[in-house]
Amino acid sequence: MELSDVKYSALNLTHNCNLRCTYCYSGPKRKCSMSLVTALQAVDFLANQANELCTITFFGGEPLLEFDLIRQIVEYAKRTYKSKINFRMSTNGTLITPEILKYFWYHDIYFALSVDGDQVQHDLCRVHVNGRGSYRAIESRMSTILDFNPYTIAVSVIVPETAGCVAAGVIDLFEKGFRYVLQTLDYSALWTPKTIKVLKEQYKRLSSYYEKSLMKGKKIFYSPFDERIKTHAQKPYGKGDLCDLANSQIAIAPSGRVYPCVQFIGTDDGKYTENAIGNVITGFDVKQRQYFVAQNYAERQSCIGCALDGRCATYCGCVNWRSTGDLRTIPPIICEHERILMPIIDAMANRLWEKKVVLFKRKFYEKTFPVSSYIEDCLIKRGGKHA
Amino acid sequence: MLEIKPVKSYKLPVYPQGIYYTPPDNYPWNLVNTGIASVALLTLLGCSQNTGVVGPPPMPLNYITEREARTIISQAFAKYGVEFDEDVPCVFSIEGNPLTVNLDGFNKELKVGYEYVSAYADYQEFVEGKASPGPWVAGVTTDINDPSILVIENVPKGTGGKEYLENAVEDFVHELQSHGIL
Hints:
By secondary structure, chain A is of the alpha/beta class.
Protein backbone atom coordinates (compact mmCIF):
# COMPACT_ATOMS: atom_id res chain seq x y z
CA MET A 1 0.00 0.00 0.00
CA GLU A 2 1.30 3.39 -0.99
CA LEU A 3 1.46 5.85 1.86
CA SER A 4 0.95 9.55 1.47
CA ASP A 5 2.99 12.47 2.79
CA VAL A 6 2.31 13.68 6.27
CA LYS A 7 0.20 16.83 6.10
CA TYR A 8 -1.07 17.16 9.64
CA SER A 9 0.41 16.21 12.92
CA ALA A 10 -0.70 16.74 16.46
CA LEU A 11 2.18 17.47 18.79
CA ASN A 12 1.17 16.28 22.21
CA LEU A 13 3.26 18.59 24.36
CA THR A 14 2.24 17.30 27.75
CA HIS A 15 0.23 14.70 29.61
CA ASN A 16 -0.66 17.37 32.13
CA CYS A 17 -3.80 19.47 32.20
CA ASN A 18 -5.38 22.00 34.53
CA LEU A 19 -8.83 20.52 33.84
CA ARG A 20 -10.30 17.09 34.43
CA CYS A 21 -12.92 16.76 31.70
CA THR A 22 -15.00 13.67 32.24
CA TYR A 23 -14.85 12.49 28.64
CA CYS A 24 -11.15 13.12 28.03
CA TYR A 25 -9.46 10.28 26.17
CA SER A 26 -5.91 11.39 26.91
CA GLY A 27 -5.48 9.17 29.95
CA PRO A 28 -4.60 10.11 33.53
CA LYS A 29 -2.99 13.52 33.89
CA ARG A 30 0.56 13.73 35.09
CA LYS A 31 3.47 16.12 34.92
CA CYS A 32 5.18 14.72 31.90
CA SER A 33 6.03 17.06 29.06
CA MET A 34 7.88 16.88 25.81
CA SER A 35 11.51 17.96 26.09
CA LEU A 36 12.81 20.72 23.86
CA VAL A 37 15.19 18.28 22.19
CA THR A 38 12.34 15.91 21.32
CA ALA A 39 10.16 18.78 20.17
CA LEU A 40 12.77 20.04 17.74
CA GLN A 41 13.44 16.49 16.54
CA ALA A 42 9.70 16.20 15.92
CA VAL A 43 9.74 19.37 13.83
CA ASP A 44 12.68 18.05 11.80
CA PHE A 45 10.95 14.70 11.38
CA LEU A 46 7.75 16.33 10.13
CA ALA A 47 9.54 18.74 7.83
CA ASN A 48 11.32 15.78 6.25
CA GLN A 49 8.14 13.74 5.94
CA ALA A 50 6.08 16.50 4.42
CA ASN A 51 6.48 17.14 0.75
CA GLU A 52 4.95 20.57 0.85
CA LEU A 53 3.11 22.19 3.73
CA CYS A 54 2.75 20.54 7.11
CA THR A 55 0.40 21.73 9.81
CA ILE A 56 1.36 21.03 13.40
CA THR A 57 -1.39 21.25 15.98
CA PHE A 58 -0.28 21.77 19.57
CA PHE A 59 -2.20 19.34 21.69
CA GLY A 60 -2.16 17.84 25.14
CA GLY A 61 -3.14 17.71 27.96
CA GLU A 62 -3.35 21.44 27.88
CA PRO A 63 -0.68 22.77 25.50
CA LEU A 64 -0.66 26.25 27.03
CA LEU A 65 0.91 24.77 30.15
CA GLU A 66 3.94 24.60 27.88
CA PHE A 67 3.78 28.03 26.30
CA ASP A 68 7.54 28.57 26.56
CA LEU A 69 8.08 25.33 24.68
CA ILE A 70 5.56 26.43 22.05
CA ARG A 71 7.53 29.62 21.53
CA GLN A 72 10.77 27.76 21.08
CA ILE A 73 9.22 25.31 18.64
CA VAL A 74 7.61 28.04 16.55
CA GLU A 75 10.74 30.12 16.42
CA TYR A 76 12.89 27.13 15.46
CA ALA A 77 10.48 26.02 12.74
CA LYS A 78 10.10 29.49 11.23
CA ARG A 79 13.84 29.99 11.27
CA THR A 80 14.66 26.60 9.82
CA TYR A 81 11.74 25.77 7.57
CA LYS A 82 10.14 29.17 6.89
CA SER A 83 6.54 28.77 5.78
CA LYS A 84 6.73 25.02 5.17
CA ILE A 85 5.41 24.42 8.66
CA ASN A 86 2.48 26.23 10.15
CA PHE A 87 0.85 25.87 13.51
CA ARG A 88 -2.51 25.47 15.13
CA MET A 89 -3.60 24.58 18.61
CA SER A 90 -6.38 22.90 20.49
CA THR A 91 -6.85 24.47 23.91
CA ASN A 92 -9.25 24.62 26.81
CA GLY A 93 -8.75 28.39 26.79
CA THR A 94 -8.48 28.86 30.54
CA LEU A 95 -4.84 29.95 30.40
CA ILE A 96 -5.12 32.37 27.51
CA THR A 97 -3.81 35.87 28.15
CA PRO A 98 -3.67 38.92 25.84
CA GLU A 99 0.08 38.36 25.50
CA ILE A 100 -0.47 34.80 24.32
CA LEU A 101 -3.11 35.98 21.87
CA LYS A 102 -0.76 38.62 20.49
CA TYR A 103 1.96 36.05 20.06
CA PHE A 104 -0.39 33.67 18.26
CA TRP A 105 -1.76 36.42 16.12
CA TYR A 106 1.69 37.55 15.10
CA HIS A 107 2.72 34.02 14.17
CA ASP A 108 -0.58 33.21 12.46
CA ILE A 109 -1.41 30.41 14.85
CA TYR A 110 -5.11 29.68 14.82
CA PHE A 111 -6.65 27.62 17.53
CA ALA A 112 -9.73 25.67 18.38
CA LEU A 113 -11.31 26.39 21.73
CA SER A 114 -12.90 23.56 23.68
CA VAL A 115 -16.22 24.88 24.89
CA ASP A 116 -19.21 22.60 25.08
CA GLY A 117 -21.99 25.17 24.93
CA ASP A 118 -23.57 27.32 27.59
CA GLN A 119 -22.60 27.18 31.24
CA VAL A 120 -24.98 24.34 32.10
CA GLN A 121 -23.70 22.09 29.37
CA HIS A 122 -20.05 23.05 29.74
CA ASP A 123 -19.75 22.78 33.50
CA LEU A 124 -21.22 19.32 33.61
CA CYS A 125 -18.11 17.79 32.06
CA ARG A 126 -15.38 20.39 31.74
CA VAL A 127 -14.27 20.80 35.31
CA HIS A 128 -11.22 22.01 37.21
CA VAL A 129 -9.14 19.67 39.33
CA ASN A 130 -11.37 20.57 42.30
CA GLY A 131 -14.47 19.53 40.37
CA ARG A 132 -15.78 23.04 39.76
CA GLY A 133 -16.91 24.01 36.29
CA SER A 134 -14.49 25.88 34.05
CA TYR A 135 -17.01 27.93 32.08
CA ARG A 136 -16.37 31.18 33.90
CA ALA A 137 -12.67 30.93 33.20
CA ILE A 138 -13.25 30.92 29.47
CA GLU A 139 -16.35 33.07 29.31
CA SER A 140 -14.32 36.05 30.47
CA ARG A 141 -11.87 35.44 27.61
CA MET A 142 -14.29 34.70 24.78
CA SER A 143 -14.79 38.23 23.49
CA THR A 144 -11.04 38.90 23.47
CA ILE A 145 -10.40 35.64 21.67
CA LEU A 146 -13.05 36.37 19.05
CA ASP A 147 -11.78 39.90 18.68
CA PHE A 148 -8.37 38.53 17.78
CA ASN A 149 -9.76 35.91 15.47
CA PRO A 150 -13.47 35.91 14.68
CA TYR A 151 -12.98 32.55 12.97
CA THR A 152 -11.97 30.81 16.19
CA ILE A 153 -13.54 27.39 16.27
CA ALA A 154 -15.58 26.21 19.21
CA VAL A 155 -15.16 22.48 19.75
CA SER A 156 -17.95 20.83 21.66
CA VAL A 157 -18.62 17.31 22.89
CA ILE A 158 -22.05 15.89 23.67
CA VAL A 159 -22.48 13.25 26.35
CA PRO A 160 -25.76 11.53 27.24
CA GLU A 161 -26.14 13.77 30.29
CA THR A 162 -25.98 16.94 28.17
CA ALA A 163 -28.11 15.68 25.27
CA GLY A 164 -31.10 17.69 26.47
CA CYS A 165 -29.32 21.04 26.38
CA VAL A 166 -27.46 20.75 23.09
CA ALA A 167 -29.60 23.22 21.15
CA ALA A 168 -29.44 25.91 23.83
CA GLY A 169 -25.69 25.41 24.11
CA VAL A 170 -24.95 25.62 20.40
CA ILE A 171 -27.24 28.60 19.88
CA ASP A 172 -25.53 30.32 22.80
CA LEU A 173 -22.15 29.85 21.12
CA PHE A 174 -23.37 31.31 17.85
CA GLU A 175 -25.05 34.19 19.63
CA LYS A 176 -21.81 34.89 21.49
CA GLY A 177 -20.13 35.40 18.14
CA PHE A 178 -18.61 32.04 17.23
CA ARG A 179 -19.10 31.25 13.59
CA TYR A 180 -17.66 27.76 13.63
CA VAL A 181 -18.91 25.07 15.97
CA LEU A 182 -17.44 21.61 15.64
CA GLN A 183 -19.45 19.15 17.63
CA THR A 184 -19.24 15.44 18.15
CA LEU A 185 -20.64 12.84 20.48
CA ASP A 186 -18.65 11.02 23.08
CA TYR A 187 -19.17 7.76 21.24
CA SER A 188 -17.61 5.75 24.03
CA ALA A 189 -20.29 6.91 26.52
CA LEU A 190 -23.30 4.84 27.48
CA TRP A 191 -25.98 6.01 25.06
CA THR A 192 -29.50 4.62 25.24
CA PRO A 193 -32.56 4.84 22.94
CA LYS A 194 -34.00 7.37 25.37
CA THR A 195 -31.02 9.75 25.24
CA ILE A 196 -30.87 9.38 21.45
CA LYS A 197 -34.52 10.42 21.26
CA VAL A 198 -33.77 13.47 23.39
CA LEU A 199 -30.89 14.36 21.08
CA LYS A 200 -33.11 14.01 18.02
CA GLU A 201 -35.45 16.71 19.36
CA GLN A 202 -32.45 18.95 19.99
CA TYR A 203 -31.24 18.55 16.40
CA LYS A 204 -34.70 19.49 15.16
CA ARG A 205 -34.54 22.70 17.17
CA LEU A 206 -31.08 23.38 15.86
CA SER A 207 -32.12 22.77 12.26
CA SER A 208 -34.75 25.45 12.66
CA TYR A 209 -32.16 27.87 14.05
CA TYR A 210 -29.66 27.01 11.31
CA GLU A 211 -32.30 27.46 8.61
CA LYS A 212 -33.37 30.85 9.93
CA SER A 213 -29.75 31.94 10.27
CA LEU A 214 -28.93 31.13 6.67
CA MET A 215 -32.10 32.85 5.50
CA LYS A 216 -30.96 35.97 7.33
CA GLY A 217 -27.54 35.73 5.69
CA LYS A 218 -25.80 34.84 8.94
CA LYS A 219 -22.70 32.81 8.16
CA ILE A 220 -22.47 29.92 10.55
CA PHE A 221 -20.78 26.57 10.32
CA TYR A 222 -22.13 23.72 12.42
CA SER A 223 -20.18 20.57 11.67
CA PRO A 224 -22.92 17.96 12.23
CA PHE A 225 -25.02 19.72 9.58
CA ASP A 226 -22.46 21.22 7.24
CA GLU A 227 -20.32 18.14 6.86
CA ARG A 228 -23.30 15.94 6.05
CA ILE A 229 -24.85 18.36 3.58
CA LYS A 230 -21.52 18.45 1.79
CA THR A 231 -21.53 14.67 1.42
CA HIS A 232 -24.60 15.02 -0.77
CA ALA A 233 -24.20 18.45 -2.36
CA GLN A 234 -20.52 18.05 -3.16
CA LYS A 235 -19.21 14.53 -2.84
CA PRO A 236 -19.53 11.57 -0.51
CA TYR A 237 -16.72 10.67 1.82
CA GLY A 238 -13.99 8.68 0.17
CA LYS A 239 -11.21 6.74 1.84
CA GLY A 240 -9.24 9.04 4.08
CA ASP A 241 -11.56 12.01 3.63
CA LEU A 242 -13.04 11.91 7.08
CA CYS A 243 -10.09 10.41 8.89
CA ASP A 244 -6.70 9.59 7.45
CA LEU A 245 -5.01 8.21 10.54
CA ALA A 246 -1.40 7.03 10.26
CA ASN A 247 -1.24 8.38 6.75
CA SER A 248 -1.56 12.10 6.06
CA GLN A 249 -2.49 12.65 9.73
CA ILE A 250 -0.39 11.48 12.65
CA ALA A 251 0.31 12.38 16.26
CA ILE A 252 3.50 12.63 18.27
CA ALA A 253 3.60 11.89 21.98
CA PRO A 254 5.80 13.69 24.55
CA SER A 255 8.19 10.73 24.40
CA GLY A 256 8.73 11.23 20.67
CA ARG A 257 6.76 8.12 19.73
CA VAL A 258 4.62 8.57 16.64
CA TYR A 259 1.02 7.37 16.76
CA PRO A 260 -1.75 7.08 14.15
CA CYS A 261 -3.82 9.78 15.88
CA VAL A 262 -3.97 11.54 19.25
CA GLN A 263 -6.67 9.14 20.33
CA PHE A 264 -4.15 6.28 20.33
CA ILE A 265 -1.58 7.90 22.58
CA GLY A 266 -3.32 7.34 25.90
CA THR A 267 -0.67 7.19 28.59
CA ASP A 268 2.02 6.48 25.99
CA ASP A 269 3.27 3.45 27.88
CA GLY A 270 2.48 -0.24 28.35
CA LYS A 271 0.02 -1.57 25.81
CA TYR A 272 -0.47 1.87 24.27
CA THR A 273 3.02 1.65 22.78
CA GLU A 274 1.79 -1.25 20.64
CA ASN A 275 -0.06 1.41 18.62
CA ALA A 276 3.08 3.38 17.88
CA ILE A 277 3.97 3.66 14.20
CA GLY A 278 7.44 5.06 14.69
CA ASN A 279 9.62 7.48 16.51
CA VAL A 280 10.87 10.95 15.65
CA ILE A 281 14.46 9.75 15.85
CA THR A 282 14.27 6.41 14.07
CA GLY A 283 11.45 7.33 11.68
CA PHE A 284 8.34 5.41 10.69
CA ASP A 285 7.78 1.71 11.19
CA VAL A 286 6.44 1.35 7.66
CA LYS A 287 4.77 -2.04 8.16
CA GLN A 288 2.97 -0.88 11.26
CA ARG A 289 1.88 2.30 9.53
CA GLN A 290 0.61 0.37 6.52
CA TYR A 291 -1.32 -1.94 8.82
CA PHE A 292 -3.21 0.95 10.41
CA VAL A 293 -3.94 2.62 7.09
CA ALA A 294 -5.21 -0.64 5.60
CA GLN A 295 -7.46 -1.24 8.60
CA ASN A 296 -8.85 2.26 8.36
CA TYR A 297 -9.50 2.01 4.63
CA ALA A 298 -11.04 -1.47 4.84
CA GLU A 299 -14.71 -1.78 4.00
CA ARG A 300 -17.00 -1.76 7.03
CA GLN A 301 -18.75 -5.09 6.78
CA SER A 302 -21.73 -3.96 8.82
CA CYS A 303 -22.37 -1.07 6.40
CA ILE A 304 -22.52 -3.05 3.18
CA GLY A 305 -25.68 -2.16 1.31
CA CYS A 306 -26.49 0.84 3.50
CA ALA A 307 -28.04 3.71 1.57
CA LEU A 308 -26.16 6.20 3.72
CA ASP A 309 -22.75 4.74 2.98
CA GLY A 310 -20.39 7.61 2.10
CA ARG A 311 -22.42 10.13 4.03
CA CYS A 312 -21.86 9.12 7.64
CA ALA A 313 -19.00 8.99 10.09
CA THR A 314 -18.21 5.29 10.08
CA TYR A 315 -14.87 5.80 8.39
CA CYS A 316 -13.23 7.37 11.41
CA GLY A 317 -11.06 4.49 12.54
CA CYS A 318 -9.99 6.40 15.65
CA VAL A 319 -13.54 6.63 16.97
CA ASN A 320 -14.20 3.00 16.12
CA TRP A 321 -11.04 1.88 17.87
CA ARG A 322 -11.70 3.93 20.98
CA SER A 323 -15.29 2.69 21.24
CA THR A 324 -14.96 -0.93 20.17
CA GLY A 325 -11.24 -1.70 20.26
CA ASP A 326 -11.20 -2.34 16.51
CA LEU A 327 -10.73 0.17 13.70
CA ARG A 328 -13.27 -1.50 11.44
CA THR A 329 -15.95 -2.24 14.00
CA ILE A 330 -18.49 0.52 14.28
CA PRO A 331 -20.10 1.29 17.61
CA PRO A 332 -23.92 1.12 17.32
CA ILE A 333 -24.23 4.69 18.56
CA ILE A 334 -22.65 5.98 15.33
CA CYS A 335 -25.23 4.16 13.25
CA GLU A 336 -28.16 5.27 15.44
CA HIS A 337 -26.88 8.82 15.44
CA GLU A 338 -26.54 9.02 11.67
CA ARG A 339 -29.99 7.53 11.20
CA ILE A 340 -31.66 10.20 13.32
CA LEU A 341 -29.54 13.05 12.05
CA MET A 342 -29.51 12.60 8.27
CA PRO A 343 -33.27 12.97 7.62
CA ILE A 344 -33.42 16.10 9.78
CA ILE A 345 -30.53 17.68 7.91
CA ASP A 346 -31.74 16.71 4.45
CA ALA A 347 -35.24 18.00 5.15
CA MET A 348 -33.74 21.32 6.25
CA ALA A 349 -31.39 21.49 3.26
CA ASN A 350 -34.29 20.69 0.91
CA ARG A 351 -36.23 23.65 2.33
CA LEU A 352 -33.25 25.96 1.99
CA TRP A 353 -32.78 24.90 -1.61
CA GLU A 354 -36.46 25.23 -2.48
CA LYS A 355 -36.61 28.68 -0.88
CA LYS A 356 -33.61 29.65 -3.03
CA VAL A 357 -31.67 30.89 -0.05
CA VAL A 358 -28.62 32.58 -1.51
CA LEU A 359 -26.26 31.80 1.34
CA PHE A 360 -27.11 28.11 1.14
CA LYS A 361 -26.36 28.07 -2.57
CA ARG A 362 -23.16 29.99 -2.13
CA LYS A 363 -21.99 27.91 0.79
CA PHE A 364 -22.48 24.50 -0.75
CA TYR A 365 -22.33 25.12 -4.48
CA GLU A 366 -20.00 28.05 -5.08
CA LYS A 367 -16.44 26.81 -5.40
CA THR A 368 -14.94 30.16 -4.53
CA PHE A 369 -17.17 30.71 -1.50
CA PRO A 370 -14.42 30.51 1.12
CA VAL A 371 -12.52 33.24 -0.68
CA SER A 372 -15.43 35.45 -1.66
CA SER A 373 -16.88 35.15 1.82
CA TYR A 374 -13.57 36.02 3.41
CA ILE A 375 -13.15 39.10 1.24
CA GLU A 376 -16.71 40.10 1.99
CA ASP A 377 -15.98 39.77 5.70
CA CYS A 378 -12.84 41.85 5.39
CA LEU A 379 -14.69 44.54 3.51
CA ILE A 380 -17.48 44.60 6.05
CA LYS A 381 -14.93 44.71 8.84
CA ARG A 382 -13.24 47.78 7.35
CA GLY A 383 -13.14 50.32 10.09
CA GLY A 384 -12.63 47.71 12.75
CA LYS A 385 -9.43 47.75 14.68
CA HIS A 386 -7.94 44.92 12.68
CA ALA A 387 -8.70 46.43 9.31
CA MET B 1 -30.59 -1.44 22.89
CA LEU B 2 -28.77 0.50 20.19
CA GLU B 3 -27.89 -1.41 17.08
CA ILE B 4 -26.36 -1.20 13.67
CA LYS B 5 -29.07 -1.27 11.04
CA PRO B 6 -28.06 -0.56 7.46
CA VAL B 7 -30.61 1.73 5.81
CA LYS B 8 -32.23 -0.20 2.97
CA SER B 9 -33.75 2.73 1.17
CA TYR B 10 -33.42 6.45 1.62
CA LYS B 11 -35.24 9.16 -0.27
CA LEU B 12 -32.79 11.14 -2.35
CA PRO B 13 -32.69 14.75 -1.17
CA VAL B 14 -34.17 17.42 -3.41
CA TYR B 15 -31.18 19.72 -3.13
CA PRO B 16 -28.90 18.89 -6.02
CA GLN B 17 -25.76 16.90 -6.11
CA GLY B 18 -22.42 17.98 -7.46
CA ILE B 19 -23.41 21.10 -9.32
CA TYR B 20 -21.68 24.39 -8.93
CA TYR B 21 -23.31 27.72 -8.66
CA THR B 22 -22.20 30.63 -10.76
CA PRO B 23 -22.67 34.01 -9.15
CA PRO B 24 -25.38 35.97 -10.99
CA ASP B 25 -24.46 38.57 -13.57
CA ASN B 26 -25.80 41.30 -11.35
CA TYR B 27 -23.21 40.55 -8.67
CA PRO B 28 -22.58 43.84 -6.95
CA TRP B 29 -19.21 44.55 -8.39
CA ASN B 30 -16.95 43.39 -11.14
CA LEU B 31 -14.73 41.65 -8.69
CA VAL B 32 -11.26 41.36 -10.06
CA ASN B 33 -9.58 39.46 -7.35
CA THR B 34 -5.88 39.22 -7.89
CA GLY B 35 -4.65 38.04 -4.53
CA ILE B 36 -2.13 35.23 -4.44
CA ALA B 37 -3.38 34.73 -0.94
CA SER B 38 -6.81 33.91 -2.31
CA VAL B 39 -5.55 30.87 -4.07
CA ALA B 40 -3.66 29.76 -1.01
CA LEU B 41 -6.71 30.43 1.11
CA LEU B 42 -8.95 28.26 -1.01
CA THR B 43 -6.45 25.46 -1.20
CA LEU B 44 -5.74 25.44 2.47
CA LEU B 45 -9.36 25.64 3.46
CA GLY B 46 -9.99 22.64 1.30
CA CYS B 47 -7.10 20.76 2.83
CA SER B 48 -8.09 21.62 6.33
CA GLN B 49 -11.34 19.69 6.19
CA ASN B 50 -9.67 16.44 7.12
CA THR B 51 -8.46 17.73 10.41
CA GLY B 52 -11.76 19.22 11.32
CA VAL B 53 -10.03 22.54 11.68
CA VAL B 54 -11.41 25.24 9.48
CA GLY B 55 -11.15 28.97 9.25
CA PRO B 56 -8.64 31.09 7.49
CA PRO B 57 -5.27 29.45 7.15
CA PRO B 58 -2.03 30.80 8.47
CA MET B 59 -0.67 33.39 6.12
CA PRO B 60 2.89 34.48 5.54
CA LEU B 61 4.17 37.25 7.72
CA ASN B 62 5.25 40.66 6.57
CA TYR B 63 2.62 41.89 4.22
CA ILE B 64 2.71 45.15 2.43
CA THR B 65 0.89 47.37 4.83
CA GLU B 66 -2.30 49.24 4.07
CA ARG B 67 -0.47 52.55 3.82
CA GLU B 68 2.28 51.19 1.56
CA ALA B 69 -0.26 49.48 -0.65
CA ARG B 70 -2.33 52.62 -1.07
CA THR B 71 0.71 54.57 -2.17
CA ILE B 72 1.82 51.94 -4.69
CA ILE B 73 -1.67 51.37 -6.07
CA SER B 74 -2.63 55.03 -6.38
CA GLN B 75 0.68 55.82 -8.10
CA ALA B 76 0.12 52.95 -10.52
CA PHE B 77 -3.37 54.21 -11.35
CA ALA B 78 -2.11 57.79 -11.69
CA LYS B 79 -0.02 56.70 -14.67
CA TYR B 80 -3.32 56.18 -16.47
CA GLY B 81 -4.79 59.44 -15.22
CA VAL B 82 -7.07 57.81 -12.67
CA GLU B 83 -7.21 59.49 -9.30
CA PHE B 84 -9.16 58.51 -6.23
CA ASP B 85 -10.79 59.89 -3.16
CA GLU B 86 -9.68 57.83 -0.17
CA ASP B 87 -11.91 55.99 2.29
CA VAL B 88 -15.12 56.40 0.39
CA PRO B 89 -18.13 54.83 2.09
CA CYS B 90 -20.38 53.08 -0.41
CA VAL B 91 -23.44 50.90 -0.16
CA PHE B 92 -23.71 48.03 -2.58
CA SER B 93 -26.54 45.63 -2.90
CA ILE B 94 -25.94 41.91 -2.82
CA GLU B 95 -29.12 40.18 -3.96
CA GLY B 96 -31.14 42.91 -2.35
CA ASN B 97 -29.11 42.96 0.86
CA PRO B 98 -27.09 46.10 1.49
CA LEU B 99 -23.36 45.75 1.99
CA THR B 100 -21.62 48.83 3.31
CA VAL B 101 -18.01 49.13 2.29
CA ASN B 102 -15.46 51.78 3.06
CA LEU B 103 -13.34 51.63 -0.07
CA ASP B 104 -9.68 52.53 0.11
CA GLY B 105 -10.00 54.47 -3.10
CA PHE B 106 -12.94 55.39 -5.31
CA ASN B 107 -13.50 57.65 -8.30
CA LYS B 108 -17.18 58.52 -8.34
CA GLU B 109 -17.24 59.74 -11.94
CA LEU B 110 -15.66 56.63 -13.36
CA LYS B 111 -17.24 54.34 -10.74
CA VAL B 112 -13.84 52.75 -10.40
CA GLY B 113 -12.20 51.94 -7.12
CA TYR B 114 -9.85 49.67 -5.28
CA GLU B 115 -9.69 47.89 -1.98
CA TYR B 116 -6.54 46.43 -0.48
CA VAL B 117 -7.69 43.85 2.00
CA SER B 118 -5.26 43.77 4.87
CA ALA B 119 -6.72 41.35 7.34
CA TYR B 120 -4.45 42.41 10.14
CA ALA B 121 -3.10 45.68 11.36
CA ASP B 122 0.63 46.04 11.31
CA TYR B 123 1.74 44.10 14.33
CA GLN B 124 4.20 46.64 15.56
CA GLU B 125 1.63 49.39 15.40
CA PHE B 126 -0.77 47.19 17.25
CA VAL B 127 1.53 46.28 20.12
CA GLU B 128 2.62 49.87 20.45
CA GLY B 129 -0.98 50.92 20.64
CA LYS B 130 -0.70 53.09 17.55
CA ALA B 131 -3.13 51.18 15.39
CA SER B 132 -6.25 53.22 15.13
CA PRO B 133 -9.68 52.32 13.89
CA GLY B 134 -10.13 52.86 10.20
CA PRO B 135 -11.93 55.96 9.00
CA TRP B 136 -15.38 54.48 9.17
CA VAL B 137 -18.00 57.09 8.48
CA ALA B 138 -21.33 55.67 9.45
CA GLY B 139 -24.37 57.18 7.86
CA VAL B 140 -22.59 59.08 5.11
CA THR B 141 -22.82 56.66 2.28
CA THR B 142 -23.24 56.70 -1.44
CA ASP B 143 -25.33 54.25 -3.40
CA ILE B 144 -23.27 52.91 -6.24
CA ASN B 145 -24.59 50.96 -9.16
CA ASP B 146 -22.38 48.78 -11.28
CA PRO B 147 -18.97 49.84 -10.06
CA SER B 148 -15.67 48.25 -10.99
CA ILE B 149 -13.59 47.50 -7.95
CA LEU B 150 -10.11 46.04 -7.87
CA VAL B 151 -9.75 43.87 -4.81
CA ILE B 152 -6.29 42.75 -3.76
CA GLU B 153 -5.64 40.67 -0.70
CA ASN B 154 -2.56 40.73 1.46
CA VAL B 155 0.56 40.76 -0.66
CA PRO B 156 3.78 39.63 1.00
CA LYS B 157 6.61 42.08 1.24
CA GLY B 158 9.95 41.40 -0.32
CA THR B 159 10.94 40.62 -3.85
CA GLY B 160 8.14 41.17 -6.27
CA GLY B 161 5.52 42.53 -3.88
CA LYS B 162 5.48 46.06 -5.28
CA GLU B 163 5.64 44.77 -8.86
CA TYR B 164 2.78 42.43 -8.10
CA LEU B 165 0.57 45.31 -7.06
CA GLU B 166 1.60 47.41 -10.06
CA ASN B 167 0.90 44.53 -12.45
CA ALA B 168 -2.48 43.98 -10.83
CA VAL B 169 -3.37 47.61 -11.49
CA GLU B 170 -2.12 47.40 -15.04
CA ASP B 171 -4.19 44.28 -15.78
CA PHE B 172 -7.21 45.90 -14.21
CA VAL B 173 -6.83 49.08 -16.23
CA HIS B 174 -6.53 47.06 -19.44
CA GLU B 175 -9.70 45.23 -18.56
CA LEU B 176 -11.50 48.50 -17.91
CA GLN B 177 -10.22 49.84 -21.21
CA SER B 178 -11.48 46.76 -23.04
CA HIS B 179 -14.95 47.42 -21.60
CA GLY B 180 -14.83 51.07 -22.55
CA ILE B 181 -14.90 52.19 -18.93
CA LEU B 182 -11.64 54.07 -19.26
